[in-house]
Every structure is written in C-alpha cells, then in structure tokens.
Amino acid sequence: MRIITKFNLVLISVGAIAMASSGYVSYYILQENAKREVITHAGMMMEAALAIRGYTISEIRPLLADQMQTHFLPQTVPAYAATTSFGKLREDHPDYSYKEATLNPTNPRDRAVDWENDIIRSFRDHSDQHQIIGTRMTPTGPSLYLARPITINNPQCLSCHNVPSEAPQSMLARYGSNNGFGWKLHETVGAQIISVPMSLPQHHALLAFYKFMAMLGSIFLLMIILLNIMLRSIILKPIVRIAAVADEVSMGNMQVTEFDASGKDELSTLASSFNRMRRSLQKAMRMLEDSQQKFH
To answer: Coil, strand, or helix at residue 104?
Structure first.
C-alpha cells in the first residue's frame, strides 16, 4: 500500500472521529441554543401581551366606561385585548399559541385545563416564583411552554370581578353572575401561557446542525487536499528521487548527480547519508578495481 494511501486512511479515520465528536457536541449545543431562542421570543411576546393588558386597563377602559353600562364591550377586557392581539401576531408566527388560563374566568374559553391548573397552583403556592418553563406531551408530540402568573395588582380589575352586584350589567347579561367573581387584590388568579411545539426549536437546531456539519466537512475536505499536495511536494517527491537514484546506483551507474543535502530536516539528513554511502561505495569500487589490476 502506498504511503499516500496510508496517510489518507489515517487522516480520514481521525477526521471521521473528530467530526462525529464535534457533531454530537454541536447538536446538543445547537438544540439548547434553539430552545433558548424560542423561549426568548416567547418572553418578548409575553411582555407585549402584558403591555397590551396595561394599556387596555389604563387607556381604553376609562374611555369606554360609560358605554359599558348599556352594552358590554369586550375590547375593555385586558385578557380579550391581549388574546386578540396575539391572534394577529400568530398570522406571522403560527407555531406560537397564547392563553390566559384562569381558575375562575368570566369567559369559559379562558378556563384552565388540568396541566394549566397545576401551573397556576404552583404560582399561588410560591409567591416568589415569577416564571415557569417546561415541556409537556401533547397528541402531536412534546410542547415547550413559558408561563407567568396573572396577579390582581390593579384595584380597577375588581370592578368586574369582585362581586356580581358591582359588575357592569352589560357584562352580567352576556356572561351571567356565576363565573369570574370573588377575585381579591394581590391574588394570583391565573397564568399567561405561551406554548410552542418542540418540533420548532428542533427544526431550527437541525438546520443549523446541517449547515455546521456541511461547513466542517468542506473544511476537512479542503484540509485533506492541501495536506496531500504538501505531502507530495515536501516528502514524497524527494523520497521518489532518492529511490530512483538508489535504483541507478544499484545497477552500477555512479554518474548520477548527488542530492542537495542543504537543510536540517529528516529528508536532508537522509540525502546526506545517501550521498556519503554512495561516495563510500565509489571508493570501495575503485579500490577493488585497483587491486584487481595489480593482481593481474
């Protein structure tokens, strides 16, 4: 087997191990980075929903307070404003979903299901907990969620959720007096939850992984080509020349040109040693010829 073939086999084996190790580590890192990126986007969306809630309470509701006495305007409800705005946002980000899950909501649409109840009760039991990030299994696969508590810190919210007698009649006419009441100031009544399928960060990570491995493979291939060129020009060509001269000398041709032994590398040492061996052989041949002539 030729030296260049052995060299390439060793290089490819080492490169394959290095690429496999790099691929394993990079895939894990890219998965985590993609997950953090999705969570960051979800956090920004959550902040936008909070801003919409605050704007609705402080700006929209006071302007429409008089009209609320005659007919109910859902646009004055913070949860409605945030959910509707997020619905518009989903047109460009369809993978994200938003819900203001509540233990005792006015609108049955917002009632928390079992896994959402667990999140809300965790917030209620741990007042210092401001965010929960986790995954859960769904019929379509694992889903990543970001949850933050809905706590009644604005007394204006109690105008619709304290007791039915204080609520706008238009709201009672639409939703009745059985749900959405009994809320208390500084009480955690629900949670804002943004969900996204795990397939989204996994897809982002997979695309980045393919690009990284393609780039790494291209660099490795270029390195093999450059190393082969350097191996041929620096090592193999001098060795081939030495082998050719050695072949000529072995057949008795002592007129071939000596090697340039300048330099301090191993090939220069080999060339210098071969030149000395050749000169010694020439001297030995001359001595042998002289002795034969004297004998005759």
So the answer is: coil
- Residue 109: CB atoms within 10 A of its CB come to 12
Range of the domain at 150: 31-198
| Alpha carbon distance 200, 202 (integer Å) | 5
Q: Is residue 251 part of a domain?
A: no
Chain centroid to Cα 118, Å, comes to 30
Helical spans, DSSP H, in 56-198: 61-63, 65-68, 78-89, 114-125, 158-161, 169-175
Q: Distance between CA 105 and CA 153 in Å, rounded?
A: 17
Task: Give pTM, 2 decimals.
Answer: 0.64
pLDDT digits (tens, 9 = 90+) for 39-94: 888 888 888 888 888 888 788 877 777 776 677 777 778 888 888 888 888 888 78
Residue 165 to residue 220: CA distance in whole angstroms = 75
Q: Is residue 95 part of a domain?
A: yes
Q: Please report whether residue 163 resides in a domain.
A: yes
Cα–Cα–Cα angle for 54, 110, 123, rounded to 5 degrees: 70
Residue type, 150: I
Query: Cβ(150)–Cβ(102) under 8 Å?
Result: yes
CA pair distance 77, 170, nearest whole angstrom: 13
Query: What is the separation of C-alpha 220 from the centre of its chain, rounded to a whole number of angstroms?
Result: 22
Tokens of 50: 């909070």
Is 260 within the bounds of a domain? no
Which is nearest to 151 in space by CA: 107, 177, 183?
183
What total of structural domains would you count in the chain?
1
CATH of the domain at 42: 3.30.450
C-beta of residue 198 within 8 angstroms of C-beta of residue 144: yes
